[in-house]
Design brief:
The protein is of the alpha+beta class. Helix content is about 45%, strand content about 30%. A five-stranded antiparallel beta sheet has the order 1-2-3-4-5.
């Protein structure tokens, strides 16, 4: 199984667009890259660990960029509302009426940082018949908005 995983990740990287052209894509790419690298590091072993980490980071960046590119202002407002008002462990779902994409977001942990409250979350996005999942963290800013942190 461990030998197949890097091959599958490489196939995913080659099948998704890899160029980010805007802030939404960059945020998604960063989050996805970090998570993919961590996953690749955990899956790989010995000499293969470095390759698995790199492949995981590339695959995660491509997936995160894809989700970020598909989100518009309405989706970002729904995410902010979920972070602000939804209890930990409770999911919020919505369908974007303009794109038809379905989203499910669940805050998984809330904690205080030096800058204010932060929340970890899981975001499932069904885009073009495929479901992608991103784990992220956002912190409330002084103006009340939520900012995704790296």
């Amino acid at each position: 199984m461990k030998a197949i995983f890097p091959v599958l990740l490489l196939a995913l990287v080659l099948s998704l667009p890899g160029c980010a052209t805007g802030p939404k894509e960059e945020v998604g790419m960063i989050i996805g890259g970090v998570l993919g690298g961590v996953l690749g590091s955990e899956v790989g072993s010995g000499r293969g660990r470095t390759a698995a980490t790199v492949i995981g980071a590339l695959a995660g960046s491509a997936v995160g960029s894809s989700i970020g590119r598909s989100m518009d202002e309405l989706d970002r407002m729904k995410m902010s509302a979920t972070l602000e008002t939804t209890r930990t462990g409770v999911a919020t779902t919505w369908t974007n009426p303009d794109t038809g994409y379905d989203y499910r977001m669940e805050p998984t942990r809330t904690y205080k940082s030096a800058d204010g409250p932060c929340r970890e979350y899981v975001l499932d996005a069904e885009i073009g018949g495929r479901t992608e999942q991103i784990y992220g963290t956002a912190c409330r800013q002084a103006d009340g908005s939520w900012r995704v942190i790296e």
